[in-house]
Amino acid sequence: MDKVRIDKWLWAVRIFKSRTLATDVVKKGKVRLNGEPVKPSSNITVGDRLTVPKEGFNLDLEVVKLLNKRVGAPLAVTAYVDHTTEEEMNKFKDWFVGKAKGEHREKGLGRPTKRERRDLEGFKGGEE
Questions:
Q1: pLDDT tens per residue across span 30-87
Q2: HSE-up of 60 (CA within 13 Å, CB side)?
Q3: Using CA atoms, how far apart are residues 128 and 26, in angstroms rounded to an integer?
Q4: Within 13-126, where are the H helices?
Q5: How far, CA to CA in Å, does 4 sit from each of 25, 58, 66?
Q6: How many CB atoms are located within 10 Å of the residue 78 CB?
Q7: Where are the beta strands (DSSP E) in 1-128?
Q8: CA torsion sign, 92 to 93 to 96 to 102?
């Protein structure tokens, strides 16, 4: 085996939970193979570099081993080398560390009324 479909490989190495999710992300043009956007049917070979968006991060992976069937996590990790920078993995820490605090309501006030809840959601930028 010298080539594997990119969506199948992303699913097999457990980057995405299902092959459908992998296919959808590739279809949207978010996955890049050696810097170029690709289709789900594109083939990858050993040595290719992939940029894959996952949970707000852009993973930079190098293909080391080709897999076309889903394997266990310990085997899946050996199929790629992760070149993702520390800055990319920590990019949200600067925004959120120490800033998110639990909400506090004075004791004895009970649950917020519908009006108070709407005011809170509007203030926090939630649904209106």
A1: 999 999 999 999 999 999 999 999 888 899 999 999 998 999 999 999 999 999 888 8
A2: 9
A3: 33
A4: 19-27, 73-76, 86-89, 93-96, 114-124
A5: 17, 22, 7
A6: 12
A7: 4-5, 32-33, 36-37, 43-44, 49-54, 57-63, 80-82
A8: positive
Q: Which residue has the tokens 């519908």?
A: 114
CA distances from 70 to 7, 29, 74, 92, 122 (A): 12, 23, 12, 30, 44
**2 C-beta neighbours (distance < 10 Å), count:** 7
Read off the DSSP letter of residue 46. T
**What predicted TM-score, i.e. pTM, was given to this entire model?**
0.71
* Residues forming beta bridges with residue 103, ordered by sequence position: none
Contact 40, 27 (CB under 8 A): yes
Distance of CA 77 to the CA centre of its chain: 16
Alpha carbon 8 to its chain's center: 17
Q: Are 42 and 6 in contact (CB under 8 A)?
A: yes
